[in-house]
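Comment thread on ticket #2218

A.B. wrote:
> Attaching the input chain for the structure job we discussed in standup.
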Amino acid sequence: MNTAGVPGLPGVPGFPGGTAVSGLRVYDWEAADGLCGGSPHLHTVSTEAYVVTGGTGQVHTISMAGAAEHGLAAGSLLWFSPGTVHRLVNSRQLTLNVIMSNAGLPEAGDAVLTFPRAILADPDKYVQHAVLPRDADEAVVAAAARRRRDLAVEGYAELHTSVLREGPDALAAFHRAAAVLVRPRVERWKKIWSETVRSQVDATEQALEDLADGSARPLAGAAVATAGRRPGEGYGMCGRLTTWDDSRVV
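C.D. wrote:
> Ran it. Output below, let me know if you need it in another format.
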């Protein structure tokens, strides 16, 4: 049972470091440029890491250092900071575990797809193309996810060409457009972040103070937690997602 709030028993400990983890099977849909894979995008405040569990592929990135391609195979570990545009390419059955900082924020919309400029400049059009249908048949959702991916790849090609021609200024322009799109969500993000990441940081600070005073009080919350895997797979930006929920003390 979940013992959070039960007197004398520890609550569910937060997942390490205020992070979140999911499993990902990268899309094998072929795009217009002949590459199979996911929807290029960036995150505005969250760092993302890939721990590759199987298959082979690449992640194509655009950062302030320019455009690059990074090979991925089982055992690869790669991560990138907010503002880095990334596109997963599936060469052969690419699967990985994704670790995100700021648990809760990516799920609350901390991502901007590389749609063509005309769509990025219109928040209503952006939402129209970015949000997948809910409570629809799987085939309908899959088709919408593929259309979204294709549109993001189209815009990514524009951005990639601009970065090669203009350098970091082209990426900075995309960053400004992304900031405008996410601004309405930021107040909600602050609340989520405060209740998750900040609360863990504050707890660690208090634990250090207690231990410095010779108190073992931080250890009184010793507990083991588990989470249930959600049935089926969801459609993410880059592939089919495995996620977990219903955390509880065991």
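A.B. wrote:
> Thanks. Noting for the ticket: Helices lie at 117-120, 123-130, 138-166, 168-182, 186-212.
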